[in-house]
Amino acid sequence: MKVCVVGSGGREHALALALAKSADVVATPGNPGIVGTTSEGHTLASTAAPAEEIAADLYVIGPEAPLVDGLADRLRGHGRLVFGPGADGARLEGSKAWMKEVLARAGIPTAAHATFDTPEPALAYLRTRTGPPYVVKTDGLAAGKGVLVTSSLAEAEDDVVAKLSGTSFGAAGRRVVIEEGLAGSELSVLAVCDGKRAIPLAPARDYKRVGDGDSGPNTGGMGAFSPVPLADGALVGRVMDEIVDPLVAALRSDGIDYRGVLYAGLMVTGDGPKVIEFNVRFGDPEAQVVLPRYGGDLAVLLASAAAGRLPADVPPPRPTAAVCVVLAAEGYPGTPRTGDVIDGLDAAGQVGGVQVIHAGTAHAGGHVVTAGGRILGITAEGVDLADARERAYAAAARVSWPGVHYRRDVALVAVDPAGTAGAKRP
Ligand code: AMP
Ligand code: GLY
């Protein structure tokens, strides 16, 4: 089988590696990491050609923007087999206001909210909230950065005004969703959907804030791990019964044939799991830890979902653990500095169980250089989370460029929940 992966980030590199266990992969535009031949003898390549011009048996669309823009519809219009929802289903991520409406209709638990296009009623609503945290979101796409969670009412008010006036996020912010702050543990459940039913992959935890101890602004994701100790079979079953399955049914009743990933971003509260957001593609960096643990043939799984015929059962996740640490450029999540030469890529890849996933790199002057905000995802698989975490940080320490920064506490909570076992911060 030949698979075309659309996208250029860490998620797409992780997809390419997992798919290339059983298929040849060509990524567009891909990145410098997506190249070579796997130990299974399959090829990985990146090309500048648009997806429409690449002949493949299956198209897997990585990022949300081309999905919202209807790329899956255009490819299907040419008779191609596509894993990824059409523009109708992708609206779940393209408009948080619409997503909330669908959840409400389907009775799916989520934070209470209201939607506003003008500042006065938005500010009045904010002031009626019972108290912090205040949560203000852009309605439209903002690369994971359009969410403010703050204990300061004044900061929330300023944010509402900046978003609605278009100064902070352009058109994406001209409508805002203000919602109840949820307390609990975050969890990502990624389910593969064939339009009629969905099958969950291994649960993962993401790290959204840029700094240790969840400090600083939100990012696209600074690290991830899987499995998640709290997310046992019973909890994942509850997520499917109360959240994912009712959503698939609601989409169907709207005439939406959703074939792709339903990514449930959840808060596990005292009242059970509640939806923070739905995304319409694999999480980044969750894909980096979920995909290596898939126990079956990923190309076959995604092709069967794309064809509307998921198998009745899939193998359980591999009995391993995976940890991904994202290495970011100076300035991220603001404007990152680019063009710095990256040292130590080969040395990092030699640590056992480690894959150096490229997320924002480019070739320049015979070197691999930084070319984005999130640059690399150092991903390690190990026998358990402590083992995977140690390997990932050992490899991360071998990589350097001016201004590189990363969180030191990825998966620490799972390895040393009380902070008393002396688990090392690298
Ligand atoms: P989102 O892009 O909607 O996933 O939001 C980004 C991050 O902001 C989430 O991963 C949470 O950490 C936080 N967040 C979003 N909505 C809420 C909420 N209603 N209550 C508490 N935290 C939230
Ligand atoms: N890791 C968060 C996201 O992919 O949206």
Summarize the structure.
The chain has 426 residues and is α+β, with helices and mostly antiparallel strands. It is 28% helix and 27% strand. It has helices at residues 10-19, 64-68, 71-77, 87-94, 96-106, 119-128, 153-164, 233-253, 286-290, 298-306, 345-349, 385-396, 412-415, and strands spanning 2-7, 24-29, 36-37, 43-46, 58-61, 82-83, 113-116, 134-138, 147-150, 176-179, 185-194, 198-200, 205-206, 209-211, 215-218, 223-226, 259-269, 272-279, 321-328, 354-358, 361-364, 367-370, 374-382.
Sheet having the most strands: 6 strands, mixed
Q: Looking at CATH, which topology of the largest domain would you report?
A: D-amino Acid Aminotransferase, Chain A, domain 1
Shape: globular
Task: Name the beta content range.
Answer: 25-35%
Number of DSSP-assigned strands: 23
- Regions with pLDDT < 50 over 5+ consecutive residues? none
Distance between the termini: 42 Å
Main structural class: alpha+beta
**The CATH architecture of the largest domain:** 2-Layer Sandwich
